[in-house]
Design brief:
Rossmann fold, GMP Synthetase, Chain A, domain 3, 380 residues, 22 strands, alpha/beta, five-stranded mixed β-sheet, 2 domains, seven-stranded mixed β-sheet
């Protein structure tokens, strides 16, 4: 993909000398004049980019990211990673994690390299692209499914290029502890990230907020605040007022975003994400956390990836269903899981696949998975 025109447009937007950039799924982009953005409360903030949320958990929204927010995110990342360097773009640039690879490169004055995603993400394409990097300091951003594929029977060459990255940012969804252990055991410096389009992407690294980022748990919900928080949603002032709030904190105004995730702080003061607020499955009158089921199934030997969701049930109202990437049979899976999980947590429908259906950004395609699980439950 030729990213030079996009880099030029982003450079002008970040310098406050051009319109906002909205990137399309094919890598093309539109330019939106600042006057057409309709900033809430008549704000005069320069917007550099408009990013669609992934839509993996609902209707996609168009998030407006200001120059100041992107700059704060870039600086915070450089501080957390202890330097700037060359980035490999392995995610579509129309999603915030891919956009940030380009933005960080522009702020650092380095030349990013984009891997060929025309045939989808493959270890071979990633390895070939990583070989093209020239800077001694190297970074990339991946989602868990991508790293899983890279470490599933990797070649010596793939491991070599992975180990040459000073850091591999891993975010966009829950990370299987087994995957993380395998990656670090293979000599990879993997940094887990938590964030979303509304916070310029990842703003909590390995459970610790970036410099200048505020983190709070309010009634179990994760709130994120500070200069990385977005200006709002394009053409949706009501949703903007619902999701964002400005509060006084230590004599300064802090802009907060109320996430849709549940979380807690562990004994070391690090954030632990417990799952989405709406991932509770009510089956037979009992509440089951989909994230808890995922964590239990991921501990079963041979399981590489799991997606858990509710499907309709005439008997239970909803029932727990799981799509699993791994070896073995349903009986073996449930036998292993049943030794450590409560009975109501065990899925009543299990579908084994070689790979999870994915969105273009590498996240699981929730709609496709739900359709497959519902069909399997209906025919069982």
């Amino acid at each position: 993909m030729n990213i030079e025109p996009l880099l030029k447009a982003l450079s002008e937007a970040l310098a406050g000398e051009g319109p906002a950039v909205q990137i399309a799924s094919d890598g093309g982009f539109d330019l939106i004049p600042q006057a057409d953005l309709g900033l809430p409360d008549g704000g005069e903030t320069d917007i550099a980019a408009v990013v669609r949320t992934s839509g993996s958990t609902g209707t996609p929204k168009r998030t407006m990211l200001s120059v100041e927010s992107l700059a704060a995110s870039s600086v915070g990342t450089a501080m957390a990673l202890r330097g700037e360097g060359q980035w490999l773009l392995a995610l579509p640039p129309n999603y915030v994690a891919g956009l940030q690879v380009l933005v960080r490169s522009l702020f650092a004055g380095t030349r990013p390299w984009a891997m060929d995603l025309s045939g989808g993400f493959t270890p071979e394409a990633f390895t070939a692209a990583a070989r093209e990097l020239t800077d001694n300091t190297r970074f990339t951003s991946l989602v868990p499914t991508q790293l899983t594929r890279l470490l599933n029977n990797p070649t010596a060459e793939t491991l070599t290029v992975l180990r040459r990255f000073n850091a591999i940012l891993l975010g966009g969804g829950p990370v299987n502890p087994v995957l993380l252990e395998a990656a670090r055991g293979a000599g990879l410096n993997v940094v887990t990230t938590y964030g979303m389009s509304e916070t310029c992407g990842g703003c909590v690294y390995d459970g610790v907020p970036l410099d200048g980022v505020h983190l709070a748990i309010r009634e179990g919900r994760i709130w994120l605040g500070g200069p990385v928080v977005a200006a709002g949603y394009l053409n949706d002032p009501e949703l903007t007022r619902t999701a964002f709030v400005t509060e006084e904190h230590d004599d300064e105004a802090v802009r907060w975003y109320a996430s849709g995730d549940l979380g807690e702080m562990d004994g070391a003061g690090r954030l632990r994400v417990l799952g989405r607020i709406d991932d509770v499955i009510i089956t037979g009158g009992l509440k089951v956390s989909a994230n808890t089921v995922v964590q239990g199934l991921e501990r079963v030997p041979g399981v590489r990836e799991v997606f858990v969701a509710p499907v309709p049930s005439a008997e239970w109202g909803q029932q727990v269903a799981a799509m699993v990437v791994g070896t073995g049979t349903e009986q073996e899976l449930l036998a292993h899981a049943g030794a450590r999980m409560e009975p109501q947590l065990l899925p009543k429908t299990v579908v084994f696949v070689s790979e999870l259906p994915l969105l273009a950004n590498g996240k699981p395609d929730r709609a496709a998975i739900l359709a497959a699980l519902t069909a399997a439950a209906t025919t069982a």
